Amino acid sequence: MTFIELVRSRRSVRTFDGSALKPEDAESILNCADTAENPYAIPIEWRLLSAKKDGLSSPVIVGADTYIAGKLRPAPHAEEAFGYAFEEIVLFAASLGVGSTWMAGTLNRPAFERAMELREGEVMPCVSPLGYAAPKMSLRETVMRKGVKADSRLDFGKLFFDGSFDKPLTPESAGILAVPLEAVRWAPSAVNRQPWRVVLDGKAAHFYEKKNRGYVSPSGWDLQKIDLGIALCHFSRGMAEKGIRAEFVIDDPGLVTPQDTEYIASYVPAE
Ligand SMILES: Cc1cc2nc3c(=O)[nH]c(=O)nc-3n(C[C@H](O)[C@H](O)[C@H](O)COP(=O)(O)O)c2cc1C
């Protein structure tokens, strides 16, 4: 399977078949988590948890016992780092046929945080169930997917731009970067908001966050920056598959940006 095929075949799985996660899948997913890197080199601690043993629950998940969760210390770019690394795990699980769903909201957080032994100053941004999809989705899952239009994404030209934000990019003018950008387009995001915007400037790709209201907590934690980390992961994996060598940098090119749009990071051609 190519990377773009993997991205297109993944979907959030909320209705599982009730069977236990195979020990070999559990082991290789935990191994993937423990070795997953992020471009910010921020350390994250991962654990597999059991709903039964740890008293965990989610109103939207049916038929899964195993969950994966990660915790880290808040720092500049912790959100993007978490998004990048967790998405590596989600994609690896999908490649094994193991279903997952990113969850920041629909969980009994105190129980998960207890099971993660969250210490003072640590955060556990998201968790995911791990298991095998049931043949049929629950009614709740079907309704949720419709509510957020989970099977569609914004058009290419609404997300990606050619040199400046007033010029929509076409897949043709994106050239060799069209497929990595398509992989970004199909990434998962909180409430399917797709806050990533990318400006291609020559061979450099500048990533921005188009902020929606209500995603920044009073402490400054920005949930949509996790989505940007996911987008960076998809782009970087998409480029790697095409053999494009690029360097990750945080170096704002100073472009004129629309309202509520914040520069995040860039990939520039490797020397
Ligand atoms: C950071 C983040 C948080 C999310 N939180 C939840 C959640 O709390 N509950 C839930 O059911 N889905 C959650 N999702 C899943 C999204 O709703 C889902 O990825 C999106 O609707 C696209 O659907 P797809 O993953 O099937 O492509 C979250 C996704 C992300 C990336």
Explain what this protein looks like in three dimensions.
This protein is an alpha+beta fold and 271 residues long. It has 2 domains: 3-141, NADH Oxidase (3-Layer(aba) Sandwich), CATH 3.40.109; 156-269, 3-Layer(aba) Sandwich (NADH Oxidase). The protein has helices at residues 3-9, 23-35, 51-54, 78-95, 109-115, 139-147, 156-159, 171-174, 178-185, 223-241, and strands at residues 45-50, 66-71, 99-100, 127-131, 160-162, 196-201, 204-210, 246-249, 261-269. Helix 4 (78-95) crosses helix 10. The chain is globular and about 55 Å long. Bound molecules: flavin mononucleotide. Residues 11-12, 60, 101-106, 126, 144, 148, 150, 188-192, 223, 226-227, 230 line the site of flavin mononucleotide. The site of flavin mononucleotide has 22 residues, from helix 10.
